[in-house]
Design a protein that fits this description.
The strands form 2 sheets. Strands 3, 4, 5, 6 and 7 form a 5-stranded antiparallel beta sheet that branches. A two-stranded antiparallel ribbon has the order 1-2. Helices cover about 20% and strands about 30% of the residues. It has one domain: Pnp Oxidase, Chain A. The two termini are about 25 Å apart. This is CREG1 protein. Its main location: secreted. It is found in: Secreted. Keywords: Glycoprotein, Secreted, Signal.
Length: about 150
């Protein structure tokens, strides 16, 4: 996840950090496509997001066994990745249960993280999408196209 830093010495510069996310519990047809995150205000990127909620998120097949199995370098376009741009927003109470199920089912240790860190559920509100899955450049996908795909 990349933000614009609000930190002293980095203010206004790009800053990237690693986050676990989930769009739904494991299993066929259970993903919503909405990237949910479990965050705390203590985290440096969250502090950036409190000043400017805009961010970009890159998800790659390099995170799976796929690219290693095919001997693709993570930078090889055949080791596909998708870049989301948008903003991070706290989920409302009606969506919190879905976010909790999505995240805790895929990242069970999250449930035992320190309660005094005031964790909260958030989602990536997608406004732009780029896909790199072959040589020759990016493909633009609209959020409407993205959310209408059926596995």
């Amino acid at each position: 996840l990349a933000t614009l830093s609000a930190q002293e010495g980095l203010r206004g510069r790009p800053f990237a950090n690693i986050f676990s996310l989930s769009d739904g519990p494991p299993g066929p047809f259970s993903g919503s496509g909405v990237p949910y995150l479990y965050l705390t205000d203590m985290e440096i990127s969250v502090q950036d997001l409190e000043i400017n909620s805009n961010a970009s998120l890159t998800v790659s097949l390099a995170q799976t066994p796929y690219c290693k199995k095919h001997r693709y370098d993570p930078q090889n376009p055949l080791c596909a990745h998708i870049i989301f741009c948008g903003s991070i927003v706290k989920v409302n109470d009606s969506e919190a249960g879905l976010a909790k199920k999505a995240l805790f089912s895929r990242h069970p240790e999250m449930e035992s993280w320190p309660k005094d860190h005031n964790w909260f559920f958030a989602k990536f509100n997608i406004t732009n999408i780029w896909v790199l899955d072959y040589f020759g450049g990016l493909k633009i996908v609209t959020p409407e196209e993205y959310y209408s795909v059926k596995p």
